[in-house]
Amino acid sequence: MSHTTSRRGLLFGTAAVSAGALLTACTSNDTKDDKTAANNQPAADDKPGKHVTIGFAGPQADHGWLNAINDNAKNRAKKYSDVSLEVTEGSNDTAQQIGQIETLINKKVDVLVVLPADGKALTQVGLKAMRAGIPVINLDRIFNSAQAYRCYIGGDNYGMGLNAGRYIGEKLKDKPNARVVELAGLDNLELTKQRTQGFDDALKNYPNIQKVARQAAEFTVESGQAKMAQLLQAQSKFDALWNHDDDQGVGALRAIQQAGRDDFLMVGGAGALSAFQAIKQDDGVLKATVLYPPTMAASAIDLARALGQAKGVGGLAEFEIPASITLYSAVVDKTNVDQYMSTGFR
Amino acid sequence: MAQEPPLLSMSGIAKSFPGVRALDGVDLDVQAGEVHCLLGQNGAGKSTLIKVLAGAHQPDEGTISWRGEPVTLRSPIAAMRLGIATIYQELDLVEHLSVAENVHLGHEPTTAGFVVRGRTARTSTAALLKRLGHPEIDPARLVGELSAAQQQIVSMARALSHDVRLIVMDEPSAALDPDEVDNLFRIVADLTADGVAVVYISHRLEEIRRIGDRVTVLKDGRAVAGGLPAKTTPTRDVVALMTGRNVEYVFPERPEREPDAEPVLRVRGLARDGEFDPLDLDLRPGEIVGLAGLVGSGRSEILETIYGARRPTAGSVSVDGRTLRPGSVRSAVGAGLGLAPEERKAQALLMLESVTRNVSVSSLSRFSWAGWVDRRAERGAARAAVRELSLRPDNPEVPVRTLSGGNQQKAVLARWLLRGCRVLLLDEPTRGVDVGARAELYAVVRRLADDGLAVLLVSSEVPEVLGLADRVLVLREGRVVHTAPARELDEHRVLDLVMEGTPAS
Amino acid sequence: MTQPVSPPRDTAGKIPPVGRLTPWRALPARADVRTLSLLGVLAALVVIGGITKPDEFLDTRNLQLVLTQASVIGVVTVGMTFVITSGGIDLSVGAIVALASVWATTVATQEYGFAGILFTAMLVGLGCGLVNGLLIAYGGMVPFIATLAMLASARGLALQITDGRTQIVSIDSVLKLGERDSYVLGIPPLVLVFALVTIAGWLALNRTTFGRRSVAVGGNAEAARLAGIDVRRQRLYLYLLSGLCCGIAAFLLIVLSGSGQNTNGNLYELDAIAAAIIGGTLLSGGRGTITGSVLGVLIFTTITNIFALNNLQSDVQQIAKGAIIVAAVLVQRRTASTN
Fold first, then answer.
1. Which of A208, A273, B9, B25 pairs as cysteine with B65 (C-beta 3.0–4.6 A)?
2. Structural domain tally of chain A?
3. Which residue in chain C has the smallest CA separation from B419?
4. What is the pTM of this model?
5. What sequence ranges are listed for the domain ABC transporter (chain B) (predicted)?
6. Could you report the predicted ipTM of this complex, rounded to two decimals?
C-alpha cells in the first residue's frame, strides 16, 4: 500500500508535469525545436549516434493493450538505425521471464527494457542487471526496489480514474441527483482498485453526483458484455458510465446496444482504436476515453537509447534522464480525438 | 479362563444401512488366547460386525466391553489403542511405500517428534517379519512389488507392531497356497500361545476344525449360535445353522445321450506365453465342459483369451467355422460368445444401474432403431430373460447392487440369454453365491445347456466341476494334464492330477 | 455407550421389511429428490431476488437476460455432462470455445458470412474434440492430461491467430441474432439454441444407445468392454460431442458479444464441471443428469444476476459460489443417504 501512496504523491508532485512535457518532447518526431538542455549535455535526437543494443522483455501479449506495447517498442526501435532490439518471447510465467532476462544479461545488451509479468517477483533480476552494469528501464509494472531500475516509466491508474471522474463530473455538474455507474476491470488487480479510488475521489468534488453501482468485469469482451448487461438491468436509469477498459468496452457497448439504451454518456479507458473511432463518429453513448497510453513502450525505447548513448532528453534542464516518469492520463473526446487516432491500438 | 471377564464382549449389536438391517442384535464373547471363528454366508453380517469391532462403523445399538469395561470404539484409532487390530480381506496397504513404512504407518518411530528414524523402523520390521516366518521380505522394498501372500504378512506385521491383544482376520487363507496356509496357522498358534485372541473368519470348515477353539455362526445379521466347540460340532450341524436347512450340493441330472452335433466352438493351438500352453478344445451345443485347476493354472486366462479379452500369442478360435479376430471381444460377442467373469462386480456389472439395463447392455441394437432405444421392448425382453432364470426379486427395475450374489450372477446370465449367445464361458460362477442358492444356479446352467448352449465352466471347487460338467479338462501350470468324462473322475483323483499332474492310476 | 448421531430411522429397533422396501421405487425417487432439491435452491434464489430487487429481478427482460447469460456455458455443460458421465473429464472446453470463436471471426472467415462463421466454429470444435478423443481413446492418454494439453495448445493457437486483438464481427445477420429484434415470441434465439441442445442432450443420454453406452463406460469400463461395447469408439464420440458443444457455444458467444477474442471462455471448464457436479452427475462416472446440469447452470447464473442487481462485488460473488457448491453437494449426499 505504501508504494501506492508514494506513487500517488509523485503524481501530484512535479513529476506529472514534467512527464507530460517530456512525453511530448519524446514522442513528437519534429526536431525543429532544436533547444537542447541548458547544460551542454546533448539531448537524444534522431541523428544516428553510438550503436545501442536494447533487450526488451514483456509479458505475453494476450490483450490488445499489451500487444500495442510490443508493437510500439518494435516500431520505435526500427526507426533508429543505431538501435538493435533483442525481443524475448512474451511470457506470463515469472520464472520463464526471469530466465529470459538473465539470458539478455549474459548477452551483455547495453540497456534493458522490462515490462514484468509481476513487478514484485522480478525485482531480483532487475537488481542483478543493474549490478551487472546494465541500466534497466522498468516499464509500467514497478519493481519493489528503486535500486532495481535506472528509470521507471508507466501509466497512472489513479490518474485515469481521477480524470474520468472529472470529465463526467464536469458534464453532469448542473444536473441534480445525477447517477453514475462504474464497470471496473479485473478486481484482483491493484490497478483496478487504484482506478476506482481515483474515480471516487474525483466524484467527491461533485455533491450532486452519486455512484449508484459498480461491477467488475475481466478486461475481456465476454465479461464486459455479461457484466454490463446485468448493470443495465439493475439500473434502469443513470446518467454516465465509466468503463475501465476499452477491450471489455467492446462487450459493454454490445450489451448497451442489445438493451437498446442510449440515455447516458459513457467514458472508456486505455485508448483503443475502436473507441477512438466511435468517439469520432459520435453516434453512440461513448463520448470519451481516458488514456493509458501504450506509447509508453516507444518512450521507453527512446529512454533506453538515450541511456545507451549517455545523453539526456530534450525539454529538461538536467544532465540525466529522470528516475521516474509517470504518464498523464489524458481524456480523449471528440475535440481532440484526431490527434490521438494514430496511437489507438487494436 | 471362564471366571475372568472375557477379553471382548459385544452384546446386542445392531446396525442398519439404508434398506438393510445388517446386524440385528449380535452377541459375541472372545476370551484371551482363543481362536474364535466367525462363520456365515455372504451377507450374514460378518463384514459389518468386524467393521464395528475395528471402529470403522458405529453400531446403532448394543454395548461393547473390553476386559469387563464398557468402551466406545469411536474410530479405528480408538480400537487400535485398545489393542484391536484387523486384517481385511482387501488389504489396506499403501503400494508406493516400503514394507517398513507401511508397518509403521501412523506411528513412525521418530526423533524429536517428527524426524522419522528409518533405520529403527526397518530393524523392528525385520524382527516382526522374522517372527511371522517370512524373514526373506526386505523391509525396504515397496509393498506393490510383493505377492499377495507377502502383502498379507506385511499387514499382519502392521497389526503386531502395535501392542495387540485381539486380531481379526477376514478370510486370511483365501489368497494363499497350501504351505502358506500352514505358515498362517503356525502364526495363529504362536499368537494365541502369547495370550492374543484371534477372531478368524473363513468359510472353509476344515480350517476351522484345524485351528479353531470356538465358533459363532451368523445368519441374517443374527448370531444363530455362539461359542460352539470348533473341533467337535458336526459339520452337518454347522451347515444347517448357516443355511437354515440341511443342504448338500444338488446337481442337475446329466442328459443320457452324448451330444452329437457339430462343435460350435473350436479352439486350435491357442496359447499365451507364460500363461498357458497350446490348447485344443471342441465344444458342442448342449455340452458343459469343465476346466479344473488351482489358482495360477491358467484357467481364467484361457477363458478370457477365448473371449478375446486377452490377445493370444498363438492359435485360433472359431465359432461355427468362422474364425474370430484375435484379441477382439466384439468379434467374440458378435459370433455368439458370452462371458460371466470371475469378478462380477468389477468385470460384468454396472452397479449403479437397474437389472434391466445390466441385462440389455449387450443387446441394445436389438431394441433400438437408428440409435433410439425402445424402452418398452427392452423392459419386456429383460423381464422375460429374468423370469426365465427365476431371478429374484421378480422386478427387473431394481438396482442390480441390491441383489444377492446368486441373483447378480443370474443377471449376467440373462444378459447373454437375451443376446442369444451360443457359447457361455463361466468363470467361477458360484463365487460369492450362497450355498443355498448354488443348486438353483446349477440347474439354470444345465437348463441352458439342454436348450442348446455350449458351456465352458471354470471352477476352483472340484465338486462343482465334477457335478456340473459332462467332460472335464484338468489343468496344471497352464497345461491340460488330463481329459475325461466327469463321471469317470472323482474328487481325489482330480485333486491328485491338479497337484501332481500325473494320472494317479 | 453413547449413541452415535445417525440419520433418522423409521422406528428404532424395528427391522425394516427388506422385501417390502421396494428399492426399485427408491431409484427414480432418489433422482427426483435430487432434481427437487435443485429446484428448491432455484426457487429460494428467486424468492431472494424477488425480495431484494422486486422491480429489476421479477421482470421479463431480466428472465431473458439470465437465460441468455446461461446459454453459452449451458451448451458447454451439456457436452461436459456426457464426458463426466462416461468417467472422463474435459478441461479444454474453455480453450476450445476461445479457439473456435477467434477462428470463426478472422477477416478471412467473415468473408463467408453467417454460414462461414457458424460452420467454422463447429468444425474447429469438432476438430479439437477429435484430437482429444483420439489421444484418449486410441492413444491411451489420461483424459485429465490430454485435455490439459489441448487447453494449453488451443489457447496458444487462439492467441496466435488474434495476436491478442479483439476481432469485431461485421456480419449484420450474425449481430442481429443477438439483438431484441430477433426474439421469437420473446425468446432470444440463443436461449432457443440452448433449449434445443438441452432437449437433444437429454434424449441422447436417456433414450438412445449412445447414452446407454456412455453410462456403461462410465459406470464400469471393463464390464462395458466385456459386454461387447466398443469402449474406445464410444470415448472418441464423447469427446467429439463435447467439442461440438464447444463449437456451438463459441458461435453463441460470437453472437452475444459481437466479437471473437482469445480470452473467451475463460475458466469455462471449472464452471461446467461445477454445474454438472452440483446437478448430480457423478465425477467418477456412471451417472449423469442433463436436467441437473442445466439446473446447476441456472443456479449459478441466477446467483450472479442477483448479486449484480444488488451491486455486490465479485469477491462476494466468488465466495457465495464456492459456498453454494459445497452446500449443494452436502445436501445431495444427505438426501442420497437418508432416502
1. B9
2. 2
3. C227
4. 0.80
5. 8-245, 259-502
6. 0.85
